[in-house]
Prior knowledge:
The complex is a heterodimer.
Chain A: E1 2-6, E2 9-13, H1 19-25, E3 49-52, E4 59-60, E5 70-73, H2 77-92, H3 108-115, E6 139-141, H4 151-159, E7 166-168, E8 175-177, H5 194-198, E9 204-206, E10 218-223, E11 232-238, E12 241-247, H6 259-263, E13 278-281, E14 284-287, H7 290-308, E15 315-317, H8 323-337, E16 342-344
Parallel strand pairs in A: 1-5, 15-16
Antiparallel strand pairs in A: 1-2, 3-4, 3-5, 6-9, 7-8, 10-11, 11-12, 13-14
Chain B: H1 4-25, E1 28-30, E2 36-38, H2 41-44, H3 62-67, H4 72-80, H5 83-93, H6 105-114, E3 121-126, H7 135-142, H8 144-158, E4 162-168, H9 172-187, E5 203-209, H10 218-225, E6 249-253, H11 254-266, H12 268-272, E7 282-289, E8 295-300, H13 305-312, E9 322-327, E10 333-336, H14 346-351, E11 360-365, H15 370-384, H16 390-407, H17 415-429, H18 433-438, H19 440-448, H20 450-458, E12 473-475, H21 484-488, E13 494-495, E14 503-504, H22 514-518, E15 524-526
Parallel strand pairs in B: 3-4, 3-6, 4-5, 7-11
Antiparallel strand pairs in B: 1-2, 7-8, 9-10, 9-11, 12-15, 13-14
Helix pairs in contact in B: 4-8, 4-11, 5-6, 5-8, 7-8, 7-9, 8-11, 15-16, 15-19, 16-17, 17-19
Amino acid sequence: MVQVTINGIKYEVEKDKTILQACREVGIEIPTLCHDERLAPYGACRMCLVEVEGGKNLVTSCTTKVRDGMVVYTNNPKVINARRDVLDLLLSNHPMECLTCEKSGNCKLQDYAYEYGLVDGTYEGEKRNKEIDDSNHFYYYDPNKCILCGLCVRVCDELQCTNAIGFEDRGFNTIVATPFNQGLEKSKCVSCGNCVSVCPVGALQPKTKVKFRYWETKKVRTTCSYCGVGCQMDLLVKGNQVVGVEPAFDGFNNGLLCVKGKFGYKFINHPDRLKKPLIKKDGEFVEATWEEAYRLIVSKIKETKENYGAEAFGGLTSARCTNEENYLFQKLFRAVIGTNNVDHCARL
Amino acid sequence: MMTLEKLREIKEKTRPILEDRLKKEGKTEIREDGSIVLKGDYYKKQVRIALRNCEIINPDSIDDYIALDGYSALGKVLFEMTPAEVIDVMMESNLRGRGGAGFPTGRKWNEAFKYDADKKYIICNADEGDPGAFMDRSILEGDPHSVLEGMAIAGYAVGADQGFIYVRAEYPLAVKTLKKAIEQAKEYGLLGKNIFGTDFSFDIELRLGAGAFVCGEGTALMESIEGKRGMPRVKIHRTAHKGLWGKPTIINNVETLANVPIIYQKGADWFRSIGTEKSPGTKVFALVGKVKESGLVEVPMGMTLREIVFDIGGGVADDRAIKAIQTGGPSGGCIPADLLDTPVDFESLAKIGSIMGSGGMVVMDETDCMVDIARFFLDFTVEESCGKCVPCREGTKRMLEILEKITEGNGEEGDIERLESLAETISSASLCGLGQTASNPVTSTLQYFRDEYIAHIRDKRCPAGSCQALLEYYITDACIGCTKCARNCPVSCISGKVKERHVIDTETCIKCGTCMEVCPVGAVITR
């Protein structure tokens, strides 16, 4: 443990923590745009600047470790001014489209602009003007809204290990791009959407046909139903309709999802979705109760087993079921029906 | 296998041949102590240590290098000294990094030496990128073995067996010379396995830079060697502890390494006897700009700017008045003429708002506009910023836009304050040295030449007469009314009767300068 003085108050913190980690632990908020605890420190956005007594320049709290006796200021005028200037520079190269931007209400840049009292960027001059890449089926990249925090590039590299995107060009002209600028569709991108989940601004957005604002939605915690892994996620629900999915950071999936979990939620509100069992009567499917359906299944199983024996059955279960469900299914076939003809789609 | 005996034999055999050749060429003289120096006024006040062999030996011949005591220092440290002793000598000599920051080389080596690891690296930073600087290039092209020997000594000191030279691909001759030198040194057993038959092995490989200025920054350089995009890393670890591929790494500049062998030949005391107390030794400068004799000069630290420009460089070209000296390249500052007696060393230059940098020294006269000079360097930085951190990527661009506005005659009240506040943010909030020093050309010109900025903004006038947009062509009463200017003007903005004084319509004038060129009596002036 080391002793650190933050804003005049002494704290005992663990030795290997960064200033940012130490501050967050004791409840001092420091703004960040490029930081993610799951990734290696990057230090690009310069929003988490703090002053350390005795230092020549301000330091980024995400990349500076605490030392015994360190005296840190996280909100003195020098720090606040530097952060304001950094924000000002970002806003000066950002399209002010908050009124129609899908990210509005869930945008860190917007939040900080509000916190630091900036209406617009004060520098007049060139703004980035590049083409939107909407070649991917599930999301699009708008380089003009991008603040180049690098979270998408680093998540793709360090967590997803796909390396589909990187930085292109340099200085003011830098953008996030795919190799040889062939577009997301032709890249190695697996559409996991983990880049979309971490984007702090409206640069990476899911393609959605439903219009909604973040403040109209409520989050419903659920388990992804696509496979047995059991990723935790929050459904964004507007009224009674699911309009988006965000990965849960407190689940074991640690903020990650795959393409199915992130983007494959539209079946939930789809008109073709089966909600009640159907029984074919006179050549047509007719809605029935679960009682009716189970009774029919039991009678058919009995009939078939009597006439043709247990080996006439074959059972296939699905990776979308949990381990427990799959266990019960094979138990049903082996113990109740009496056959080993049972298999699973993931084994193929 | 190379032995000390063999090394001496090569030296004794080659030295007379080399002396013969030099005598025939007549460019050099041999001093009483046996050292060979270049002749002429330009070299009289210079003390050449890093450049000691340049233009004297044949860079393609390892024998020539050995003839002038080459590789004797490596032999000496391997047989007579422990790594700790090697580092002690380096600390004692107080050789400071010649790449610009001036960090003591011995302390750097010691950090890597103390850090236990299974692999360590020595990197030679040969990614010289300052506009107009070419000292590293001259050493690599003129005396490559001094760098190789310096690296091997550094390798022995810290316990590294692998070195990399990161050299820019824009230096094809340096690359070729280095390749040949490495090959020769390996053949002689002066690089590779069991050097001089000892347990010490050291290999050197070349890595070519792809033209990004920022790759001269140590951590960006390592990223580039690792095959990644050249962007600076955060300094959460010291390079001497966790550098290239996470292993202890020493990065030394070409000129620093060229100084290393001779320190072990002649001793730390000898080295400290040259230069100043805090900045011992010499520094190579690329003396360019409006100076009579431009070129590389190597002088003891502490020599004044005046001595360098006037005693060595022969003064200002066309005998104009000197206005300023820009030192340190795009990270440096402009020093006004009244500070010409400042001694050149790390501390003195920093005190007056400039830096030593890698050693660029641009002489400027009264026709150079200081606002435009600041704009030129900012233009360079904006182009070369890697784009990682916000203040450098966005801030330098905004600074450049304001400077362009001022030089184009559209400056407004408040622009200077804007520049100053931007400079403050960029220098205190940027990630790496490139951003932290990017505003130096602006702050130093604002400090010493503020009135020039004010003249541009308030009076729409460029006192140096250099900003094209602010020039006004004017016909004086010396005009003889020959009509030549009116006939040659491409936009027909000159009017006047024959044998009467002509007038330029400044609204229509495109400032092409044709009238001035064709006027037979010099009546057209700019103001």
